[in-house]
Amino acid sequence: MCLRNALFLLVKDMKRKLGIALIILMILVSLITYDALISTRHKLGDGKDKTLFELSFNDLDFENEITTLSDTYSSPASHTYQTANSVNTIRGWGLVRVKDNKTPKADPGAPELLKKYNSIYVADTDSPVIYLTFDEGYEAGFTPDILDCLKEHNVNAIFFITGPYLNQHEDLVRRMVEEGHAVGNHTVGHYSLPTLSDEKMQKEVTELDSVFYEKFKKHMVFLRPPKGEYSEHSLKVTSQMGYINVFWSLAYNDWDRNNQKGWENAYNKVMPNLHNGAIILLHAVSSDNAQALDRIITDTRKKGYEFGNVFDLIDFARGDGQ
Q1: How is 49-68 classified by DSSP, letter by letter?
Q2: How far is CA 271 from CA 100, 265, 280, 296, 310, in A?
Q3: Is there a contact between 222 and 246 (Cβ–Cβ < 8 Å)?
Q4: Residues facing 280 on adjacent strands
Q5: Taking the CB of residue 256, how many other CB atoms lie within 10 A of it?
Q6: CA neighbours within 13 Å on the CB side: how many for 322?
Q7: d(CA 226, CA 231)
Q8: Number of Cα atoms under 13 Å in the Cβ half of residue 96
Q9: Residues recognised as catalytic
């Protein structure tokens, strides 16, 4: 009888402890879930918090997609508009164009700074190979045509997307992946990275990559800083995260949907400025770009250039190719 009572009390005590353990486990799971939810919230200019999946294109600022951009040959290159110290100085990426299909000139010291952190704006300038990149902050209905054109010409590109783009246009992103393109990180909320704290900067990048990985089982490698704004510190932080910051050696003011001038405008902006190793930035919201792309690809090849596989830029950026 004593043994039976002892066993009964032991089993009762084990059940009590098991119940307590289950309660503790449920609390821990709840805390982890809540922390994960909080970590995906974004403070917006109006003071409201929104998760990545609540963000809309209206929450993002696309008014000036590139802070510093010159369509002339004589204007200065990138303008430093805020100074603190040499590491935290905020820079706007810019170039001085050079005629006769020569490599544009970047700010003195800028190419060396990019190389230090495995970042690029141009590929091998000894080879007649060109790389296409498209910024996809939001969708204007032209991406399907762009993808059709690239498929027809067997050309791949990097498409830099934002959080709302992935959220609202997963079908197009899936097509990019399945058709052999690289999908790059343009951050969740399109903030200027060097203006953010390290924690916020990392969240802007990692949260987009995490959702992209959940959907496609691939990680993003290429990062295009919103507005072309960067600092040595932002390059360092994102490089340590494993990203290649991709700037450009050819771009023009093409993102204003209310200022499209016809396909000839896009064609005439791109073709005279082709050069070896060019990394071309085109905004996919431009009807001019979408309509001119077929002619640009065809005539670029006629000039003796070829379009390179954008994934080759990984080895170029991380190797000795610069």
Answers
A1: EEETTT--GGGS--TTSBSS
A2: 11, 10, 11, 7, 20
A3: yes
A4: 132, 250
A5: 14
A6: 20
A7: 12
A8: 11
A9: 135, 283
CATH topology of domain 57-318: TIM Barrel (3.20.20)
> Are the C-beta atoms of 215 and 167 separated by less than 8 Å?
no
DSSP sequence for 273-293: G--TTBEEEEETT-HHHHHHH
Model confidence pLDDT, tens digit, residues 24-49: 555 454 444 334 433 444 454 444 55
Q: What share of the chain is helix, strand, coil (3-state, %, to 5)?
A: 45, 15, 40
Structure tokens at 135: 């910024």
Q: Half-sphere exposure of residue 216, counting CA atoms within 13 Å on the CB side?
A: 23
**How do residues 62-71 score in pLDDT, each as one tens digit?**
666 677 675 5
Three-state secondary structure readout of 83-125:
CCCCCCCEEECCEECCCCCCCCEECCCHHHHHHHCCCECECCC
pLDDT above 60 (res 88): yes
The residues, ordered by sequence, that sit 6+ positions from 215 with a Cβ below 8 Å of its Cβ are: 166, 170, 173, 174
CB of 50 within 8 A of CB of 42? yes
pTM of the model: 0.81
Query: 206: which 2 tokens?
Result: 């990692």
